[in-house]
Amino acid sequence: MKNSLFSILILMLVPTMAGAQENSTREKVWAVGLGSVNILDTYISQEKYRGEELRFVSYSAFHGTKHPNVVTQIMHEGSLQTASPRSEDADDIAGSYTFSYALRREWKPNHRLSFQAGAQAELALGFLYNSRNGNNPAQLKCGLNISPSGVVAWQLPLWRKVFLLRYEVSAPLVGAMFSPNYGQSYYEIFSRGNYDHNIVFTTPLNAPSLKQMLTVDIPIRRTILRVGYLGDFRQAEVNSLKYHTYSHLLVISLTRHI
What we know:
Order of helices and strands: HEEEEEEEEHEEEE
Radius of gyration: 20 Å
Oligomer: single chain
């Protein structure tokens, strides 16, 4: 199962590499997100940790010259999170990097409204460190997801300018993630090589998750200021352990059309 999922990711990336010369860059976005985060990882603690998150996002969107209705989106995300429990006697420090590749088809019923629908492959790597734990102070985060992905955009003429309202959403459908089993130490996994269902197949049944972003584009000369909300809700219950990371972020970005 693990090999088949990675094969799917490779197959999805092939059109991008093969057709790179056939695509023209239409949109480049650099964004910063700041907001709140809620973290639960019962391998480390039964407590929920609440704190702040800083996220950096960079992505490019391409329209094919041969197939202008096909949109390719490549995104890089990096985040840093700090959180504490109610007792404030410990700290969680978490970091992650996520690469995603989306391929969507676009429809335009009229000159103001557009829809995109397709699929997205996402690979995430990260860590979680707890300042209080002695035996198991850290957790490795690693996962692959295949998600349906969609975008709705509407142009709004206002004050002699054209504002763009945009909503983007994706929800993992199938994937795989790394997780220790209940009571299993990292020493057993990596030093002794004791595998115990540490690569887990995920679906909405054991890992219901959702990522959504609502933004408005404000034109400022040749640059567009994009402001909005990013909600990223990741959760899983595998190997008798529970995980979740709920992020609510204010996102500010600069967008260039090339």
